[in-house]
Structures are given as structure tokens and as C-alpha cells.
């Protein structure tokens, strides 16, 4: 074997140990430049991460972003925005500061919100003042602001809307006049109409529908029924 070049290398092509040579081969250290056990390129990684980590965000900035996202979907009341901030863990002090500023610049206006809500929901869904008042209360609009907005919806307009709703429903209504009458009154009640407005609207609409319905409508004492319904609600 003399004269042959010795095999060199490490790993899979390393020369086998000579007979009788019990000297252990040195193990490759995985220690990095800092002396710890990190591999190549890992030394100082913690220091690098700390240096490049973004600073904590200002709570006011986060609160403003939350409000802007909420307002981009639809107008909100101050109470709705306050609830959204609380759910995200914004402190009450920061929330008050941000919402006060939004009040100042007109981005929050509960009175304008209430007026727009009443107009939209009455025209689009045919809701009466009673139902609209409940919706405004659920959205945190105070009683005085809600009353002012609801005052723009007068009794004549409300009664006309009730009649229009009944006439549209009667086009597809089926059944005996008394059953149809009860369904129509119930529909208006769910939309917030008082018993008096609902019963009168249905009676007038039935009177114009057919001879049979008109005969049934003639027998309806709207005032007596309305008083009985009101007593039942108390």
C-alpha cells in the first residue's frame, strides 16, 4: 500500500482509523462567535431582533384606526364607537380623548345620525316611531336627541305609510277577511305602529279591496278595537 496517496476528507469520505489508534477525533463545535451553542449565522440573532422590532404603537393611534374602520362601514353613534374601543381593550381615558376630538371635527354627530336613521328606516322598512325609538335607544342615542329626530316624522306621514304597507301586502294576501285583517294588523304592530293607526289603516285598505272585504270592514269599530288593544298592552 506504500506510495498510495492517503485518503483525506471528512464525513462520508474520511480515512478509517488506523489499527491501534484509539485517539478520538475532535468533534466540530457548533458554538458561534459569541461562544454560545448557536449555529452559523445565529450568533447575535437576539440582539438583531431587538434592534429591528417595531416600537409599541401609541394607543391613541390604534383607537383612531378602530374608529375610522367603523365609520367606513356606516355612520356610528358615539356610544357605538365607545363600545368598539372597549372591546379592543382601549382605555376609557384614551377613548374619551379620541371621541371628544371626533365630536369637535364633526365625525361623530348623534343628532345627524338620528335624523338620517329615522328617514332611512321609515322610508325603506316602513318602521313607525315606536320601533325607530327602540332602535335609536339600542344604538346609544339619548332620549332628547331621539325625540327631536322622531318629531320630524308626523302622524299624517306615519298613517299614510301604514296604509301603503297594507295595500302592498293585500295584493298577495289569501284567506278570509277576518284572518287577513288579523295578519295585517299584526304586521303593522311589529313595525311599531300603534293599535289605532294599524286598525284604521287595515280597515280602509280592506274597504277598497273587494265587496266581501268592504262588508267585513264596515263591521269593524276601529276606535273600540284600538282602545281594547291599548288596554291589553298596558
Structure summarized in a few sentences:
The chain has helices spanning 45-52, 59-73, 78-87, 92-104, 110-125, 129-138, 143-150, 155-170, 177-190, 195-207, 211-218, 222-233. The protein is an all-alpha fold.
Approximate helicity band? 55-70%
The Cα radius of gyration reads 39 Å
| Total count of strands | 0
Helix/strand structural class: mainly alpha
| SSE order, one letter for each helix or strand | HHHHHHHHHHHH
- Biggest β-sheet strands, sense, barrel: none
Rounded average pLDDT: 82
Pick out the low-confidence regions: 1-16, 32-36
| Alpha-carbon distance between the two ends | 115 Å
- Give the overall silhouette: elongated
The amount of beta strand, in percent, is under 5%
- Helix tally equals 12
Subcellular location: Cytoplasm
Function: Modulates RecA activity.
Organism: Micromonospora endophytica
Keywords: Cytoplasm
Map the helices and strands:
Elements lengths: L44 H8 L6 H15 L4 H10 L4 H13 L5 H16 L3 H10 L4 H8 L4 H16 L6 H14 L4 H13 L3 H8 L3 H12 L1
